[in-house]
Each structure stands twice: as structure tokens, then as C-alpha cells.
Design brief:
CATH class of the largest domain: Mainly Beta
Number of helices: 1
Number of strands: 26
Strand order of the largest sheet: 8-15-14-11
Helix content: under 10%
Number of domains: 4
Shape: elongated
Radius of gyration: 46 Å
Order of helices and strands: EEEEEEEEEEEHEEEEEEEEEEEEEEE
Oligomer: single chain
CATH superfamily of the largest domain: Cadherins
Strand content: 35-45%
Length: 356
């Protein structure tokens, strides 16, 4: 009991148990006579009497630091039976100072690739009291469960360390409360916030395309200069570590243009640089490469397949420009005189040939 406790304060004591029934289990209590304390009985909801010690006068630890009392429980049997328990009262020194943090707000910035167990920051709280009243321990205040999975706090040193790897792409900032408690039960809180894992983002993600392969279909009559949208890449990193550039390779018929999107993002476009000829090449294989600005840079690729659609841009061609046939004058009607052959480089209906 603290020496600052005001007279009239009550302190519940342990209730005695009696396995008998009826009047044999009806208990009354007695307390050793002492001018500083008296006994009060408080009836609980179950009808049993709860013994309580009542402080009758102010305590002074410097005059008397402890008291030894005896609580006796007597049942209602005939003859009555009793049991006793020792009540040892320690008078504690006045804990009139709570811990005080060196800062109200602590800030830290760490890299997201910090290994588990790495130091994030150290908080310091001091207490002007002496002994256990001045001994400070640290713990989390009321924080989400996710914080406890990512961070630990050493109760003695106040060091906050990582408990598991951090991920900037999952969350870039954490805010939570730390608590300092002295040996007398007084507490103080500080806010720890602004743990910005994003400031020191690590280039741990390469740009990636949602589709690894894309097919474009265009007619061989498509005019040079025509543009076609290409799939864009995504990079969850930030700053220079995010997506920076695109590059196209694979065929001289095509070039790359990059336009700025509504949000400032880059939108790649395929530009037809040279007229197509399906009869020369029915397919074109291209590679679109996206690169970030990390050091070293990381890249992602997508394959672009251009299918050239046929146009009726070829006339049939005979295998010979002129056929000479010598026929006897008495050849029967209906006889085959000669077979001619023409071919067409187009496909489908454009390549079907009729003779007349």
C-alpha cells in the first residue's frame, strides 16, 4: 500500500472456503487489532461476505515500512472451527513521477531490404523516482497486430528492431505508440511514426508486362506512319527504381514511340516505319523491353507478334507468257489441246484462280 493512500481506502482480501454446508459453512472474519487498519465485510452478489482491510490513518513508510496481521475465518458450527492467513502489508514509497521520453515523437527511415533483427531506432525515457519507481521498461501501446509482426521493442533498452522483412510496395509508412512504465505502475506514452521504408526503396522489382505475348494484326496495305498501342509495363518500385524507358527490337519495318499518359505514365506505341508485304513476310516477331533506372537496372520483356493480313495486290501469273500448240486437223472435238497454269501470290479468295 502506497504511503500516499488516503484513509478510508479498502483492499479486498482472499475469501475463505468451507466445504461444509448450511450453518457449518457460514463464515465470519476477525482481524488482528491495529490502529492503522480495520476489517470490513462486503456482501458480494452471491451472498458471501468479502473481507476487506480498511486504511484508518495515513501511513508513513519512514516510521513503519511493513505490518504483519492475521485474518481469521470462523464457521458457524458447534463447536466452531477456524482458519487463519497471514496478511503482510508493505508500505511502498510514493511514486510521484512518471517516466518522461526524451522526445515526444521519434522518426526513423530504413531500407526495405533490412534483415530481420536490424535496429530501427532507440527510445529513451527517464524517471526521477528512485528504486523500482524509477526503473523504466518499454513495450508497445495499443497497436495493430501487423505492427507486432514487423517490429519488436526491447523492454530494457528501448531498442526497436525489425521482426521480419519490410516491403515498401506493401506499405511505405508505419505509425504506432510505445509505452514506458516504471516499477510503480505509472506509464508514459510516445508516438513513433514516420518509419518511411519508401525513402530508401530498394530496386527489388523488375518491370513486368501483364501479358508476356501480344499479337497484332494489320493489313499489308497499312500506310507507313500508322500507330498501334502496345501493352505497358508495371513496376511497383518508386523513384529512379521505377519504370524509366522502353526499347523495341526485332524488325526494321517497325519503330517505337512513347506517349505520356494522363497520369504522367509512359504509353508505348508501335509505329509502322516501312510498308508491309505479306508475300515477303507473313509474320514479324518483335521484342519490347522495359527498363527501370536502378543500379544495376532491371528489365522485363514482352514478345510482339505482328500478323500481316493479305490484300489483293497480286495478279495471277501464267507459268508461260505464250503457249504454242501443234494440232492435227482431224483431232476429235473435245480433245485436250493444252493445259495452262497460272499462280497467284495472294491467299484465300484473293489467290483463287478462274480461267476464261
Amino acid at each position: 500500500i502506497g504511503e500516499w493512500t488516503l484513509p478510508g481506502a479498502r483492499f479486498p482480501l482472499e475469501m475463505a472456503q468451507d466445504e461444509d454446508a448450511g450453518s457449518n459453512s457460514l463464515l465470519t472474519y476477525e482481524l488482528t487489532s491495529n490502529p492503522s487498519f480495520s476489517l470490513a465485510l462486503n456482501e458480494n452478489p452471491g451472498g458471501k461476505m468479502q473481507p476487506e482491510i480498511v486504511l484508518e490513518r495515513a501511513l508513513d513508510r519512514e516510521k513503519q515500512s511493513s505490518f504483519e496481521l492475521v485474518l481469521t475465518a470462523v464457521d458457524g458450527g458447534d463447536p466452531a472451527r477456524s482458519g487463519t492467513v497471514q496478511v503482510h502489508i508493505n508500505v511502498t514509497d510514493l511514486n510521484d513521477n512518471q517516466p518522461v521520453f526524451s522526445k515526444r515523437v521519434y522518426e526513423a527511415r530504413v531500407a526495405e531490404n533490412l534483415p530481420a533483427g536490424s535496429l530501427v531506432l532507440r527510445v529513451v525515457a527517464t524517471d526521477a523516482d528512485a528504486g523500482s519507481n524509477g526503473r523504466v521498461s518499454y513495450s508497445f501501446g495499443s497497436v495493430p497486430d501487423g505492427v507486432r509482426l514487423l517490429f519488436t521493442v526491447d523492454s530494457e533498452s528501448g531498442e526497436v528492431r525489425t521482426a521480419s522483412p519490410l516491403d515498401f510496395e506493401e506499405k511505405s509508412k508505419y505509425s504506432f505508440r510505445l509505452e514506458a512504465r516504471d516499477g510503480g505502475g505509472l506509464t508514459s506514452h510516445c508516438e513513433v511514426y514516420g518509419i518511411q521504408v519508401g525513402i530508401m526503396d530498394i530496386n527489388d522489382n523488375a518491370p513486368s508486362f501483364r501479358e508476356a505475348e501480344t499479337e497484332l494484326r494489320m493489313s499489308e496495305t497499312t500506310a507507313p506512319g500508322s500507330r498501334f498501342p502496345l501493352p505497358d509495363a508495371h513496376d511497383p518500385d518508386s523513384g529512379r527504381n521505377s519504370l524509366q524507358s522502353y526499347e523495341l527490337s526485332g524488325d526494321e519495318h517497325f519503330s517505337l514511340a512513347v506517349q505520356a499518359g494522363p497520369g504522367g505514365d509512359q504509353r508505348p506505341e508501335l509505329v509502322l516505319a516501312k510498308a508491309l508485304d505479306r508475300e515477303e513476310a507473313a509474320f514479324h516477331e518483335l521484342v519490347l523491353r522495359a527498363s527501370d533506372g536502378g543500379d544495376p537496372a532491371r528489365t522485363g520483356t514482352a514478345r510482339i507478334r505482328v500478323t500481316v493480313l493479305d490484300a489483293n495486290d497480286n495478279a495471277p501469273v501464267f507459268s508461260q507468257a505464250e503457249y504454242t500448240v501443234r494440232v492435227a486437223e482431224d483431232v476429235p472435238v473435245g480433245s485436250t489441246l493444252v493445259s495452262v497454269l497460272a499462280t497467284d501470290a495472294d491467299e484465300g479468295p484473293y489467290g483463287e484462280i478462274k480461267y476464261s
